[in-house]
Design goal:
This protein has 170 residues and is mostly helical. 64% of the residues lie in helices and 6% in strands. It has one domain: Four Helix Bundle (Hemerythrin (Met), subunit A). β1 and β2 form a beta hairpin. The chain is globular and about 50 Å long.
Length: 170
């Protein structure tokens, strides 16, 4: 695959991420607070905690890519925002930051390596492209969990498939 096609895919992935997050947050906003915050059988224990984890992961990975890991994040299950409205605003800002970062990547950067330390203190040096693809896959994975939790909460989960995004934005 050419560098131009990879860059196009990365930039599309950033915009798809924003689109999917908006749809997911719209669905969550329709829930009563009791349903949104309720303990549910899931890895992070609730819709709210799972949405916080996605923001935590995005902040950590984007920080690694930009060599500026946020010091205020200390755990993968950290609740960055207790309030849904604040979390939603932070999510929107992070999505804008992700798009700006991806729009700024050039072909030379895709093959360059970067070094980072993970949450267990292990240090890795990787080329940018595989962790960047993991970054988008991680978001999709956990949005899928929230999608399922919305069903358990009695809400209609929105379609989040990439093909829906492509058709809607064509």
């Amino acid at each position: 695959m050419s560098a131009d096609l990879l860059l196009e895919h990365i930039r599309r992935s950033a915009r798809y991420n924003q689109w999917a997050n908006r749809r997911l947050y719209d669905a969550c906003a329709a829930l009563a607070p009791a349903g949104y915050y309720a303990a549910r059988p899931s890895f992070f224990g609730s819709i709210h905690a799972t949405l916080n984890h996605i923001l935590v992961g995005d902040s950590i990975w984007l920080g690694r890519f930009k060599n500026a890991v946020p010091a205020h994040i200390t755990a993968l299950n950290q609740i960055l925002h207790q309030d849904f409205a604040q979390l939603r605003a932070a999510r929107a800002a992070k999505d804008d930051e992700i798009i700006a970062y991806c729009d700024g990547i050039d072909a030379a950067q895709l093959g360059r390596t970067f070094t980072y330390t993970n949450s267990r203190g292990e240090t890795f040096t990787d080329p940018l492209l595989p962790p960047l693809m993991h970054f988008f896959n991680h978001q999709t994975h956990h949005r899928g969990q929230v999608h399922g939790l919305l069903s358990h909460a009695g809400a209609a989960p929105p379609p989040l498939d990439l093909i829906h995004y492509l058709r809607e934005t064509a």
